[in-house]
Prior knowledge:
It contains three helices and 16 strands.
Amino acid sequence: MAVELMRLEGVVRCEVVRRVNRFVVEVLVGGRPSKAYINNTGRLEEYLVRGRGAYCLKTPPGRKTEYRLFAVHDSGLGAIIDTQIQMNAFEKALEMGVIPWLEGCRVVRRNARLGSSLIDYLLECPRGEFYLEVKSAVLRGEGGYAMYPDCPTARGRRHIKEITEHVSRGGLGGVVFIAALPGVSAFKPYEKGDPEIPALLKEAVKKGVLVRALAMYYDPRPSFVTLYNPDLRVEL
Length: 236
């Protein structure tokens, strides 16, 4: 059953023109060209194409860009490409207790040091302290898959290795993939994006790392980020 996690206020419809650089997208708002900030460093080639309908938030005064692009039109809903909104929604789902495989867990620390990396969360769970890394899986693959990554990611490889090593030493840890797009039935790693990721995830699971996925989307009608599968099937 779908769960409404959080309402977004002040959303304006926009249209993608082009990606200017890693963090800036040119958009049209009411037919007027403007610049929008984007915090997802993936290629997002299927989304950031001219004419694609999208959703923006107004940025506070003094920022270099007037808007923040957070979602792109997808099947009558919105694929959430903004990683901070994905994280906020994940935290809300955790707080609401609607993620069954994290039942009884709470956030102790964000950006927790583990080896040479900062891992997204240190959780306190019934079994003990649990390191959890969150990855954005918004690449749509054939057959109803959400996929990650869409380009090589040294950072992603390092995080998986750090958590695997931690679990190998007797600790607890996991990786969760947020499939922030509508209509997906499973997650799997995208080998063409980074050929090492699938093998690293298989090894991680073998060593006892929890690898899970959840699915959400942006619904523009009530302007809610909605969780529609808290335990999306994972295929490695």
